[in-house]
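#onboarding

Welcome to the new folks! Below is a worked example of what a typical request in this channel looks like: someone posts a single protein sequence, and someone else replies with the predicted structure as tokens. Don't worry about understanding the tokens yet, we'll cover that in week two.

Example request:
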Amino acid sequence: MHGNRPVLLIDGMGTLVSLTAPAPALVEVLKRRFGMAVSEAEARHALGAEIAFYRTHMDQGRDAESLAELRSRCASVLFGALPMAVSADDDARTGALLEALRFSAYDDARPALMAARGRGARVIVVSNWDVSLLEVLELVGLAPLVDAVVTSAAVGARKPEPAIFTHALALAGTTAAHARHVGDSLSEDVAGARACGIRPLLLRRDGSDEPGVETIAGLAELTWP
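Example response:
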């Protein structure tokens, strides 16, 4: 047990990492892999369909086998939303999708995690994501700075459901009184944390405020603990 050691719970997408311009990337990947020319608008439309499908089904990516199946289905949705058919097998389509989805860490993510750890906090990422999140954090260089990763797919519960937060607290061996949760969603991060008695901190990178909620415009403003 870690007792009273402070624990920073922090969201993934939109808080620590972002998706880097997927439409231009998809245009380039389709041209290079299949000789297929689509506009950025057409690529955005197809990606919108894929993202909507993924958000509904992300929790089905519970392990390597189910994640591979989920990715194949996402690729089918993506290619089905393109303006023309592509003659390619499932592996080729899935590979193209994954190549176009390029993640990067926000500039303030690494310094914020290092500062929190320097102040004695354990750091646990709590995110609505499939089980590949740890791989993403490794690719963007943040994995060494977190103590654990809790995904909705692994737990079987999405934020704002209490189970994903209580699972993270159990991993940390602490209680809500010694934790804070930082995220960019009012309905998922703030509501979920409050339901578990965890003090929330809303990240609004556009600088806007939310009445009644403690808000920061960037992770550089995170001074807890």
